[in-house]
Amino acid sequence: MIEVNIFTYYIICLVIFFIAIFNTRLGLILLFLNVPIVLYCIQSNGADYEHYKADYETARQIATYPYFYTFSSLTAEPFYKIYSAFIKVITDINYSGFLAVNFIFCFSIYYIFTPFNKKSCIINHLFWLMTLPVIIPTIFYASPRSSLSYILILAGFFCLLRDKKIFSGILFFAGGMLHSQYLAISFILFFAGYFNLGAIPYVKNRFILFYILVSLSFVVVLKSISIILPNISSLLSFLPSAEVATGKLHYLTSNNTGFRLTSILSIIIFPIFSLLLYKRYIKLSEVFNIDINIAWRLCFLFLLITAFGLAINVAFFSNPHLSGRLSRFSDYTSLALLIPLVLICYFNRIKAVMILSIFLLLAPLLYPTVYPI
Q1: Mean of pLDDT over the chain
Q2: φ, ψ dihedrals at 4, nearest 5°
Q3: Cα–Cα distance measured from residue 319 to residue 251, given in angstroms and rounded to the nearest whole number
Q4: pLDDT value at position 78?
């Protein structure tokens, strides 16, 4: 088997992006054809990769519920272990094959739930293209339990846009059970969508002020986390993944220090793009041929997503490990969906892809853990 490394993968990303400047559909096709092959052939980076691989290889079918399980020391939610064990037992493919199959499965789920139809498919193309440099190697290679869970939360987000509240709740719950780091943002989005908070006139008329108030509220709650930690632990105790979720609560009060360069994106860049989207939400409806109500829900939910990411990175500014994990959904969805949405509203396709290419060029500098030099 031909082995590739992360820098070979980066060269592939550059080629796909260059082609996408001229034809985004062709770029997407090349992405879909190449990523599973890369995931199958890429070398182990040690660290978490080997832990996930060992977990997968110990998968067995058992006589009692849940019938599929793994017997390893990997600290992961039971639902992820059941999912990976099911794939192993049913297909008997190796771990590299599992990574490839998992990507294809997640790719399919995205297209089942996306609200963007054929006339607005450009945003689907750009979403996946923007996952290439960082998101794919992070959640589809280094931490596969973050991949299906992320896509399910995103599918729940898409269902909220279409006002399918109950179905969105099921998807949010499933995603949160696969990876508990998404529980907080799932609850916030579902609560706001279920009670239709975006329909409150004050929100639309005082959008910027509301954004500031929401962000400050999130920061206050997160800064007071040590006070409410016992209550959070009690609430999580009812979940199937309670043992894993509560076992990681100590990170909220840890004293790890450092600096995450990409926190600047969460604190400054993504909020700005959220406000730019609000300014063009009527044009958003026209450009992507979506209902005006869906366009407004998109703006409102991105307000919550980016405000949550901003608050996490402010509250835990000196703890890059924690802020990076908790704001993962906010950061990835803003990067891969929010920014392309805004750029297409302000520029034509070619200019938008060229601007997005700047992020691809900066990725090795912004994410040294993904591209260790």
Answers
A1: 89
A2: -120, 155
A3: 9
A4: 87
CA distance 91 to 96: 13
Q: What's the chain's Rg over C-alpha atoms?
A: 20
pLDDT at 307: 97
Residue 320 identity: P
Residues 6 or more apart whose CB falls under 8 angstroms from that of 177 comprise: 77, 79, 239, 240, 241
Task: Note the pLDDT tens digit of each residue in 112-161.
Answer: 999 988 667 899 999 999 999 999 999 999 999 999 999 999 999 999 99
User: Rounded to whole angstroms, how far apart are CA atoms 121 and 83?
Assistant: 30
Amino acid at 88: K
Number of H helices, E strands in the chain: 22, 2
On the CB side of 161, how many CA atoms lie within 13 Å of its CA?
A: 21
- Half-sphere exposure of residue 136: CA atoms within 13 angstroms, side-chain side: 29
What residue type is assigned to position 63 of the chain? A
Q: What ranges in 23-144 are assigned the alpha helix state H?
A: 24-41, 47-57, 78-91, 95-113, 122-131, 135
Contact 45, 59 (CB under 8 A): no
CA atoms within 13 A on the CB side of 189: 38
Comparison of pLDDT for 103 and 235, the residue scoring more? 103
Task: Please provide residue 176's backbone torsions phi and psi, each rounded to the nearest 5 degrees.
Answer: -65, -30
Measuring CA to CA, which residue among 193, 231, 192, 230 is closest to residue 214?
192
For residue 357, count CB atoms less than 10 angstroms from its CB and return exposed for 0-12, middle for 13-18, buried for 19 or more. middle
Residue 144: φ, ψ to 5°: -60, -20
What average pLDDT score do residues 309-319 get?
Answer: 91
**Longest alpha-carbon distance in the chain:** 59
Positive or negative, the Cα torsion across 176, 194, 117, 355? negative
- Lowest-confidence range among 43-52, 75-84, 327-336? 43-52
End-to-end Cα, the chain, rounded Å: 25
d(CA 244, CA 140): 21
Residue 225 has pLDDT above 90, yes or no: no
